[in-house]
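Propose amino acids for all 266 sites.
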């Protein structure tokens, strides 16, 4: 990895948010997957995105783990987003594109990136599926999966998870893709909401994002420990061993699903 890319990765870690500054409340996260022929498709897609979409993006490109990748500088020259390598523990922030490093797997938990070694040492590796499973679990109806040019079927299973959670699934038109295997596999699996040429995908993403309920940060969230103690003393439920990030995320999800009820309490 070059010094400039290393400095950029370090800068990403340095921007780690505090719990009160976490940008994940109401955030829509877009997982983009591609392999052969995917670089050109990614350039076209990213080139159409404005700098202030309000969404976060994660790119899973099948890369040769034995060679240094120039994906970050190549893509940074073609888009207005902040582009950086995915660094373990870095918080997800809007208007950022996080790129998987060669030879790694990437997931999301509690609003932060989790970088790990591939689980499958033999046989096919499916890094796009791996990301999408965690994306569906953590972001539910705010998760988006976009599958671009590539060979094989990586992504088809994970996209089904996003579809089941009410998120959005978009496939590049296989007739336009340099290699139609990945988008065709997703289409054949029946999990795709829209099949589009690359130049129309950014507009579809922004229309979807505009429909996502925006849940403001809850002021009483600072009292979460007291609330947990109260529930433990007054009910059979003990949440002391739950991660606070998990509890906050579940509260946010329920608020997003019941906006009318919340409105009546204000």
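Proposal:
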């Amino acid at each position: 990895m070059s010094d400039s890319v290393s400095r950029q990765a370090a800068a990403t870690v340095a921007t780690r948010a505090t719990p009160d500054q976490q940008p994940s409340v109401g955030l829509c996260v877009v997982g983009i997957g591609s392999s052969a022929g995917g670089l050109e498709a990614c350039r076209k897609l990213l080139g159409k995105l404005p700098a202030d979409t309000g969404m976060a993006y994660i790119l899973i490109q099948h890369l040769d783990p034995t060679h240094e990748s120039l994906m970050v500088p190549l893509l940074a020259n073609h888009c207005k987003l902040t582009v950086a390598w995915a660094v373990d523990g870095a918080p997800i922030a809007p208007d950022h594109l996080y790129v998987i490093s060669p030879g790694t797997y990437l997931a999301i938990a509690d609003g932060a990136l989790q970088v790990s070694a591939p689980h499958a040492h033999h046989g096919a590796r499916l890094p796009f599926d791996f990301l999408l499973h965690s994306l569906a679990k953590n972001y539910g109806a705010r998760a988006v999966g976009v599958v671009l040019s590539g060979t094989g079927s990586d992504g088809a299973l994970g996209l089904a998870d996003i579809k089941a959670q009410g998120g959005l699934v978009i496939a590049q038109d296989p007739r336009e893709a340099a290699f139609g295997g990945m988008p065709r596999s997703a289409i054949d699996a029946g999990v795709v909401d829209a099949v589009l040429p690359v130049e129309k995908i950014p507009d579809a993403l922004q229309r979807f994002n505009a429909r996502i309920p925006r849940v403001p940060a809850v002021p009483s969230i600072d009292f979460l420990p007291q609330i947990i103690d109260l529930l433990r003393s007054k009910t059979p439920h003990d949440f002391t061993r739950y991660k606070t990030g998990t509890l906050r995320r579940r509260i946010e999800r329920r608020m997003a699903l019941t906006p009318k009820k919340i409105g009546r309490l204000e």
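DSSP finds ten helices and nine strands in the chain. The longest helix spans residues 244-257.
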